[in-house]
């Protein structure tokens, strides 16, 4: 039986104070991610996908609605609880890697574990294991500036996974990579999902990246527009995604 | 149009500009304060015990100018770092290179002139404030010192206008030479950490050796004299720089290699930040250490001169009170003091001799000092005269009499006599009771008293002194007595000018040094912003980040402080050439330093925190 790892219920986000000109970034979004799923969120610029990810990441608060991650309601937590929650239950991959360039790859990956006060020998073991999974065990003593973009993103993925989070949140992870590195990262993410049962939520505007997901939610103007499931192989899923995107584009034209 | 844009963005960054402005104002006001002392040669000549004090001031003025130049450059690169991105964006949008550089030139110059005006005013205020504070608190007179001094004002104005013109040009040129991409990506530059090689190890060893040589020279100043001063100053300075350049990065690397320490909480990040900072700040930290040494040293030196006055008075005389023919008021005053020993002797005085009674002396022999200026020992106690007196008359003339034993002569000359005119050309005689009774002239009384703490009773002693001077005949009256208080008072007036200058300079140096460090740290802060934001995103509590900032900056601040204080603690030894106890009350300047430094540390942390940790909802 599958259990829910993320539940978003009727989430709204309104920017601007009452009485002033307000903008509704999210207009009541509801979605659900099961454990072990690899879900993509797509949508044009300004559709609200980054806002949604920020809210799920606990970096921003919703104006209305409830978000539960692994059974915990994050909308009721204070700043410190949120920080702890992020460091213990969430893993992040950002478009621009966000590695600390004054720390070695090893230290970057070890950071989430150090924050939890895990003893040094155990940290070493876990870092080595996750580095091996992502194929970067040779790079651990190097600094981020000494490795390629793809390797940096793998290091970032390793940092996101080292503490075994409930869910991995990826924000345009291939955005700054060339196609070869992008492919290899996506393959690695699929592998994590399929063989290591990591739940992944990925925001992207790139159809090719999205084709690696099992399910894709399309957002437009702050609401869910459509949801598609991968049933056959990746290339036909890719075509399916392009179709929906074309549909989306057409609907915008007619506005 | 561009000017308007740039003004509005300056308004937005008001807080950062305020930091810059405060820094410049501090530097200008300190420079002005120094000039009020350095240029006022009437004051320095009259108030110092070292005739070559003007030389010290010239060296000091040079040093301060040198540091100020550095400081202004740091401050201006801070200004440039604030504006780079925005000005780069204007250029991307098509604004002309020359126009943009011109804006920055004008902006830098305008900042400079504004801070010059404010700084001069603050300087005048500070000079007046610190001047009167020092005079009140330290009980010293600084007659002739003028807080508002036109030559100093002119000097400050000229110096800084030239400096601002240069830095404005440098800023404009630096901006013009950078490409558009350099400018808008300025925050993404990476910090590289240098590897440690054989050269570094050699430099560290050489640095240690030089500091050791410098310390040896300072400690053995008595034998080495001028050579020692030169060797001590040069070797210590060069050694300090080498140590900071070589040893400190190595030390940081060592800390970072400790896996266990590194894996704890945010330590990896804190140490990495520190490692990089220490690598970038080596020369600044060495400069700060030297400035701390100079600043605390100036205060400690001034204070030591002042404190040694009481010691010198104590070495010269055992008895705190020496009264010839004490009046009723004197015995009243004595009752208010904790008198440990009180002796009275009779004497008669005529044109040829002062005569004391043998039986009086033998019944209550006085104490004499066993210390001397040349062979001073802190723990040596006064000794009681134990020598026998000859059967008949003894005198210093040696005619028709036995000589006075040495101990007794020392007692009479150093403890009994109140003034040079009292003894004059007279000889000292010790006679027996019957001879004394047969002598012509009035019988006088001498009262000696020793109290628990001489410095506790300054007002009473001053009143006694005035009454004693009143007793002297007008022809003898020159206003000074050889009593302990008389000596203390005249030496005190003499050294207070030196002390005033020491404290004044010390505080000026310290204020300068700390703001130097503060600026260097803050000017790099914008580049750290991204790191803190990223850590916040992956779930580091804000309190931990703040803690990391406190820890990191504390270590940055503590290294130069320790080195500088060590220099002072060793360096004070050199004053043993002219002072009895150079180390007396060294804790006062150390404490003043710690306070000033701690305040700067706190301010730096708050400002840095404001830059790297943005407010959250």
UniProtKB/TrEMBL annotation, chain A:
<keyword id="KW-0067">ATP-binding</keyword>
<keyword id="KW-0547">Nucleotide-binding</keyword>
<protein>
    <submittedName>
        <fullName>Putative ABC transport system ATP-binding protein</fullName>
    </submittedName>
</protein>
<dbReference type="GO" id="GO:0022857">
    <property type="term" value="F:transmembrane transporter activity"/>
</dbReference>
<dbReference type="InterPro" id="IPR017911">
    <property type="entry name" value="MacB-like_ATP-bd"/>
</dbReference>
<comment type="similarity">
    <text>Belongs to the ABC transporter superfamily.</text>
</comment>
<dbReference type="Pfam" id="PF00005">
    <property type="entry name" value="ABC_tran"/>
</dbReference>
<dbReference type="InterPro" id="IPR027417">
    <property type="entry name" value="P-loop_NTPase"/>
</dbReference>
<dbReference type="GO" id="GO:0016887">
    <property type="term" value="F:ATP hydrolysis activity"/>
</dbReference>
<dbReference type="InterPro" id="IPR003439">
    <property type="entry name" value="ABC_transporter-like_ATP-bd"/>
</dbReference>
<keyword id="KW-0813">Transport</keyword>
<dbReference type="InterPro" id="IPR003593">
    <property type="entry name" value="AAA+_ATPase"/>
</dbReference>
<dbReference type="GO" id="GO:0098796">
    <property type="term" value="C:membrane protein complex"/>
</dbReference>
<feature type="domain" description="ABC transporter">
    <location>
        <begin position="6"/>
        <end position="246"/>
    </location>
</feature>
<dbReference type="GO" id="GO:0005524">
    <property type="term" value="F:ATP binding"/>
</dbReference>
């Amino acid at each position: 039986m599958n259990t829910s790892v993320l539940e978003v219920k009727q989430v709204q986000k309104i920017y601007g104070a009452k009485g002033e000109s307000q903008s509704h970034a999210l207009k009541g979004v509801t979605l659900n991610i099961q454990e072990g799923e690899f879900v993509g969120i797509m949508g044009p610029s300004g559709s609200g996908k980054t806002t949604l990810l920020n809210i799920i990441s606990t970096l921003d608060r919703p104006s209305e609605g409830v978000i539960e991650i692994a059974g915990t309601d994050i909308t009721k937590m204070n700043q410190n609880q949120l920080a702890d929650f992020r460091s213990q239950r969430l893993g992040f991959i950002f478009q621009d890697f966000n590695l600390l360039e004054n720390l070695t790859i090893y230290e970057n990956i070890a950071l989430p574990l150090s924050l939890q006060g895990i003893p040094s020998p155990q940290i070493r073991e876990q870092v080595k294991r996750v580095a091996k999974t992502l194929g970067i065990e040779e790079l651990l003593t190097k600094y981020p500036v000494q490795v390629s973009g793809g390797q940096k993103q793998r290091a970032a993925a390793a940092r996101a996974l080292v503490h075994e989070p409930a869910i991995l949140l990826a924000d345009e992870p291939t955005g700054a990579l060339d196609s070869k590195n992008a492919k290899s990262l996506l393959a690695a993410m699929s592998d994590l999902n399929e063989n290591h049962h990591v739940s992944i939520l990925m925001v992207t505007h790139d159809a090719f990246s999205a084709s690696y997901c099992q399910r894709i939610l399309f957002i437009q103007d702050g609401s869910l527009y459509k949801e598609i499931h991968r049933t056959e192989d990746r290339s036909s899923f890719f075509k399916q995604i392009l179709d929906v995107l074309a549909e989306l584009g057409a609907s915008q034209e007619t506005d | 149009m561009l000017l308007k844009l740039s003004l509005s963005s300056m308004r937005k960054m008001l807080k950062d500009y305020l930091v810059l402005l405060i820094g410049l104002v501090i530097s200008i006001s300190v420079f002005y304060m120094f000039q009020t002392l350095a240029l006022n040669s009437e004051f320095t000549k009259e108030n110092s015990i070292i005739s070559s004090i003007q030389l010290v001031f010239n060296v000091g003025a040079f040093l301060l100018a040198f540091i100020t130049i550095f400081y202004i450059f740091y401050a201006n690169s801070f200004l440039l770092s604030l504006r780079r991105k925005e000005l780069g964006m204007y250029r991307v949008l098509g604004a002309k290179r020359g126009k943009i550089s011109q804006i920055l030139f004008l902006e830098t110059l305008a900042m400079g002139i504004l801070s010059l005006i404010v700084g001069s005013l603050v300087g005048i205020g500070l000079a007046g404030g610190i001047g009167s504070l020092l005079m009140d608190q330290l009980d010293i007179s600084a007659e002739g010192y003028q807080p508002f001094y036109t030559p100093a004002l002119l000097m400050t104005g000229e110096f800084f206008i030239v400096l601002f013109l240069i830095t404005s040009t440098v800023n404009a040129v630096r901006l013009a030479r950078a490409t558009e991409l350099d400018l808008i990506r300025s925050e993404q530059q990476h910090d590289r950490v240098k590897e440690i090689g054989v050269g570094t190890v050699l430099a560290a060893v050489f640095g240690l050796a030089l500091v050791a040589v410098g310390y040896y020279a300072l400690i053995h100043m008595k034998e080495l004299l001028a050579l020692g001063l030169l060797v001590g100053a040069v070797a210590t300075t060069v050694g300090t720089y080498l140590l900071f350049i070589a040893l400190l990065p190595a030390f940081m690397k060592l800390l970072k290699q400790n896996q266990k320490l590194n894996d704890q909480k945010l330590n990896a990040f804190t140490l990495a930040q520190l490692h990089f900072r220490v690598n970038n700040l080596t020369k600044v930290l060495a400069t700060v250490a030297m400035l701390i040494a100079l600043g605390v040293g100036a205060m400690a030196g001034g204070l030591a001169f002042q404190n040694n006055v009481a010691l010198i008075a104590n070495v010269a005389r055992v008895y705190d009170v020496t009264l010839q023919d004490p009046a009723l008021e004197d015995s009243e005053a004595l009752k208010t003091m904790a008198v440990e020993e009180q002796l009275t002797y009779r004497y008669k005085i005529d044109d040829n001799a002062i005569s004391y009674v043998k039986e009086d002396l033998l019944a209550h022999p006085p104490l004499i000092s066993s210390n001397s200026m040349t062979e001073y020992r802190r723990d040596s106690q006064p000794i009681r005269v134990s020598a026998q007196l000859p059967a008949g008359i003894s005198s210093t003339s040696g005619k028709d009499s036995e000589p006075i034993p040495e101990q007794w002569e020392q007692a009479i000359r150093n403890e009994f006599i109140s003034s040079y005119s009292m003894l004059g050309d007279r000889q000292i005689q010790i006679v027996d009771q019957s001879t004394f009774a047969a002598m012509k002239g009035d019988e006088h009384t001498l009262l000696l008293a020793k109290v628990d703490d001489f410095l506790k009773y300054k007002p009473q002693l001053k009143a006694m002194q005035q009454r004693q001077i009143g007793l002297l005949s007008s022809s003898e009256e020159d206003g000074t007595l050889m009593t302990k208080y008389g000596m203390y008072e005249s030496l005190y007036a003499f050294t207070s000018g030196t002390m005033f200058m020491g404290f004044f300079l010390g505080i000026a140096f310290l204020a300068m040094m700390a703001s130097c460090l503060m600026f260097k740290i803050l000017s790099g802060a914008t580049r750290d912003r991204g790191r803190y934001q990223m850590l916040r995103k992956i779930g580091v509590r804000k309190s931990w980040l703040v803690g990391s900032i406190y820890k990191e900056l504390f270590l940055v601040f503590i290294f130069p402080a320790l080195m500088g204080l060590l220099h002072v603690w060793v360096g004070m030894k050199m004053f043993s050439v002219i002072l009895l106890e150079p180390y007396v009350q060294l804790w006062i300047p150390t404490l003043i330093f710690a306070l000033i430094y701690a305040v700067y540390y706190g301010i730096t942390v708050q400002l840095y925190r404001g830059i790297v940790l943005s407010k959250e909802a």
